[in-house]
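Narrative progress, year one. The postdoctoral researcher (J.K.) led the effort to move from monomer predictions toward full complexes, under supervision of the PI. The following entry was the first complex the group processed end to end, covering 705 residues in total.
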Amino acid sequence: MSNPYTFIATTAFGLEAVVKRELQALGYDARSTSPGWVEFDGDLSAICRTNLWLRSADRILVKVASFTAADFDALFETTKSIDWTQWLPANAHFPVEGRSVRSTLTSVPANQRAVKKAIVEAMKSQHGVSSLPEDGPLYRCQIALLKDEATLTIDTTGPSLHKRGYREFAGGAPIKETLASAMVQLSFWNEEKPFLDPFCGSGTIAIEAAMLGRNMAPGLNRSFAAEQWANLDSVLWQEARAEAGDLQLPPFEEILVATDADFRVLRTARQNAEKAGVADQIHFQEREFSDLQSSRKYGCLITNPPYGERLSDWRELKPLYESMPLILKRLPTWSHFILTSYEGFQKLLQKNADRRRKLYNGRIECVYYQFHGPKPKSGETEPVFGGINEKAAEQAELFQRRLRKRARHLRKWPSKRGIYCYRLYERDIPEIPLVVDRYHDHLHISEFERPHDRDIAQHDDWLELMRVSAAEALDVPAEKAFLKRRGMQRGSAQHARVAQDRYETEVEENGLKFIVNLSDYVDTGLFLDHRETRMMVCNESLSKDVLNLFAYAGSFSVYAADGGARSTTTVDLSKNYLDWAERNMRLNGFTGDEHTYVQSDIREYLQSLPDDAQFDLAIVDPPTFSNSKSTEDDWVVQEHYAELLNSVLQRLRSGGVIYFSTNYRRFKFDETLIHGRCHEITKQTIPEDFRNKRIHRCWRIEKLD
Ligand SMILES: C[S@@+](CC[C@H](N)C(=O)[O-])C[C@H]1O[C@@H](n2cnc3c(N)ncnc32)[C@H](O)[C@@H]1O
């Protein structure tokens, strides 16, 4: 019989198929019998070859016997009847371990004792000796019971096979070499394809890939328990090692890329690669994930991103995970293979993997997500993350046509009136829910809402297409068309580096100058829908003491000063905004002491005013206080506004006026709550360029004597 023995390759749950494939490649017919076990038949040389070659198995066991054992008698007697001399010499050191799953004999220590005793008795009689010194080589025996089926094995491996001998040093959260190799084998990677691990840590995945690519036997640099065994001719080991040496391939052309943000861990990675003999095959580089890039095509990104043990770690990691689609879309032809225990990973990426496989990294349950990119020769072009489809291209055309039409329509009126900043488009086409404002020769494009039929990466590409299309349609250089995204967490945006560099420019409106920020704030600093209201304030400010609350970048203060206000008081909670307001005032030459700036919470500010503080005109343009959907809250909000307005009225001289504006959509205004005469002036305050007549609501409130 050429394959007289049966062996068991043990492996982590989930990797049986990989081990089976590895065994088949070595020429052994393998069958997986139970989770974590793959059986195969072979001669004695199989012990040497499989220990040297298997990449994803933990250890190789000799299967001595298997039989039914529902009671101790059966266990003892059958064990004793086995010819142990074919494996164990008289001096063998043979500790017995055990495990029992869904079996009658539940006590593992009792099973171990029974088996030990049975082997001792068998050995004494079979070797014809009266005592067993157990001072020879190690033969670690195991009695495993599964549903009353006993399997007796002897471990040939010694320290688990993941200990290849190259990793003396490990980073913070290394993955096992066996798992890393399985990840590579389960991917599309081969030595002709680009490889990238952007969270390489101690480099395990790249090292395993390099070893695979060069057909290096992973066990060549270590020893095994069975090398000490008397019955295993050392020639078998020599032959197996020689074979492994012969089969090793020279370095291949492709240089694997492994990067990590932490330079210390890279030192470890380089040392490990050196020890494994593949240092020349891998380029290690310090690099933030957000800087990921590659000019190579059709590669495989195989990685194990950081994971946390505590919930707080997860929270911290959320932006990093959220940024992944935006970053990975830089590799549109690549396939991506990601092992993580991050719960809700696919939801966060808004992308379902083509395949998922549950795997264990030690005790941590992980999922191996496999995203299959386009195949080089198939003509497929659809990337895993991002991409523009036909529909998007049609939408871009539609968008351009609409923008051109609006631009023609608005061409005449703005500049004639000294208006260079105006709204061109506000969700005119519902499926293109964007807002486009023109600020002289710049465009400011913002998202009205995030549509849900695209994932985040596709949406990012879609937005970019719309941005470039808008610029083209309106004859604006593309670099002057700015896009502000909505619904992306700050952290993820930072991770993905989608934020543009800060861009400020000076614009004009009705002969006044303003600094607008087109890049990094939600708003630009000049609310275009308040253009008419600003003019009203200007016309009413002559010789008045003007109070501008929630002043933001101070545009109302500038108009009031221009209208001849005796004084302006600009109040905002943010120092940044106040500075901005002051810059706007100075830009227009309003530098006198009568213009003051107060950084304060508005309510506290009003309370802190002395009783004789008197104003004539106040602008109250608060942010939306509530995002709540319940009508009950609407009432709370309304009372909140009423309280605010009444306390402003208290600070006004008789005949004083408040301009009150809100863009709270479901605002209900119970005028009876206000100690003043209220006129809704919404209609007069919505500028002509705004097709959306509900952009804000506005009241003029007069103080009654
Ligand atoms: C789970 S470990 C990878 C372990 C690796 N597979 C190994 O076997 O050693 C995650 C790695 O991600 C790195 N990392 C965390 N945040 C990063 C970022 N923003 N950019 C790049 N690397 C980062 C950490 O330094 C750490 O080495």
